[in-house]
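ok so for the tutorial part 2 we go from a plain amino acid sequence to predicted structure tokens. step 1 is just haveing the sequence, like this:
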Amino acid sequence: MENTVDKIIITVVGKDTVGIIARVCTYLYENGVNVLDISQTIVSGYFNMMMIVDMSKAQKSFLDCQKELDALGEDIGVSIKCQKAEIFEKMHRI
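step 2 — the prediction. this is what the tokens look like for a chain of 94 residues:
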């Protein structure tokens, strides 16, 4: 099994507006978080993005990033949730 200690799953959901990806990715860049994979879709005007990021070189703790991304989501009108990949994988194991 791949090491998932520093990997985080970020989901972004809400009404589609200009700049959602830019704002989220700018925050990640400014805090030393590397985007490993990204997928986004827009369905009937609703934006949905899932990112897998690496926090091994992050300048802030997971909890600080989680709180700040939540606040960023409120600011731009979307819901941003962060979850550690190792927990996500254990919860969704069949």
